[in-house]
Amino acid sequence: MNLHINNISHSYSNVNVLENINLEINQHQIVCLVGPSGCGKSTLLRLIGGLEKPSSGQVTQIGSPPENSINPLTYIFQDFALLPWRNVYDNISLVLEDHGIGKKEIKNIVDDVLTRTKLSEFANAMPKQLSGGMKQRVAIARALSVRPAVLLMDEPLSALDSQTSELLMDDLVSLWDREKFTACYVTHNLSEAVRLGHKIVVLSRRPGTISEVVTIDIPLNERKNHTDELDKKQKYLWNLMREEALLADKELINAD
Amino acid sequence: MPTNKHQVNKEVPFRGGGFTHKPLLFVGPLVFVFIIALLEWGTSTGWISDLTLPRPSGVAQTLVDLYHSGLLFKHLLPSLTRLLMGSLMGITAGIAVGLLIGLFNLVRAGALPVVAALFPVPKIALLPLFVIWFGIDEGSKYALIALGSFTPTVVATYAAIDNVDRGYIRMGQSFGLSWVSIVRKIVLPGALPGILSGLRISLAISIILLVAAEMLGATYGIGAYVLEAGSLYDLERLFAGVFILSVLGVIINWFVGVLERRLLSWRT
Fold this sequence. Notes:
The complex is a heterodimer of chains A (256) and B (268). Chain A is of the alpha/beta class and 256 residues long. Chain A has helices at residues 41-48, 88-94, 103-116, 132-145, 162-179, 190-196, 227-250; strands at residues 2-12, 15-25, 30-34, 56-62, 73-76, 150-154, 182-186, 199-203, 210-215. Chain A has a six-stranded mixed sheet with strand order 5-6-7-3-8-9, with helices on both faces. A three-stranded antiparallel sheet of chain A has the order 2-1-4, covered by helices on one side. Chain B is mostly helical and 268 residues long. Chain B has one domain (70-262): MetI-like (MetI-like fold, Orthogonal Bundle). Chain B contains ten helices and no strands. Chain B has helices at residues 27-45, 56-68, 71-103, 105-118, 127-134, 138-162, 166-174, 179-213, 222-231, 235-263. In chain B, 30% of the residues are buried. The A-B interface holds A 49, 51, 70-71, 73-75, 77, 79, 81, 83-86, 94-95, 97-99, 126, 128, 146 and B 167-168, 170-171, 173-178, 181, 185-186, 189-190, 264, 266-267.
């Protein structure tokens, strides 16, 4: 299943947040959205997954999601959004309970996803016992349990320290190698974008428009051996964004 | 580092510390013991006159007599029943209305002004009215306690719901959970800490109103006992009653604490 974003514009009470966004998210690809703070990249992600309605334009699913997909468009949040009163197992089973799946089947799915993400021994841990990195791993396991067609990731590594986020980035690369998941990945971190993105979409400052789309053809698992090339791409992206970021930084916040 | 005659070497002075809480378990009981000992000494030497304060040992003797005569339970039982029935009604209704206000905009718009108008009304002033409405027996007493515990419960409940992290709710929506599931599995457990701390306030108000409720048409009850002692200026019985009410408050507070530890074990 592919996603088409057709001419989306969005505004909150007179402030234009996004303008004329056209974008394709194709199967087995990770599309990274980068841009200066407040450019509406997180808003765009919420629009893509149907958590918010765009003022104009629409998001279309091209083709139908796989038969066994329980929740085709699935988010991974920056703050993990794990319920503190449920343990790891119950946090994952929570998202399966409302889809007419039997108890036994739920147990199979959760056990399977915990094994795949190497979290089985943490099944009974409470979220507050886990480090930030482990919390996000649980959130990723939860997202995988509903067999998503497209993962919508909202700065999933931003709340983690740099060593942990480095480890998780490796996890994501090997996960993509195994499962070839489709994702839209919002980040403000350009090194994450060049490590994980097949396509990097650069948004301009508010009102957000697409200023450039950069593609990187190096396979994800080989990128660690092409640091020079990635550095070049990252510098190129930074030059695109530098002026905008500077201006965005000085802007007064009056949107919310 | 080379040292010369003009150089003074001294340790950096410690400037941190303080402004933290340390549990000092023995201080609380010690304060009580000190106050009671002071009163005992003051009343027995005549430094404090009999009209100002009763002698603590006299109050204790009154409590013992009350127990031996069987009157203690004759007073305690109706009071506990009133407290239980009244606050049960008030708190149940309060949580229900608070939930509705927290979840539905229409109810919020309609009920919030009513609750705001009801909250500052001294419920005691309505007792004569309740006697007409619900009778001079138990009905009016239940109603007074119920209304008194209702308003703070409503406010605590809807505020607790407002404070549930919207991120959890958005998460639930993004995984396609039904509305009922989101309320039952995310909103309610998330609001529980706030509802329980509201319970402490509501129950304390219930005890206060218990005494007021027993002003009219009650022969037995801790409130009636205290009020009678007050009008006869029998300080020892007055303080014995006050002591019982105070113990009641401590027990209820302890009970809510147990409830919190049970239901909110995920917090610690």
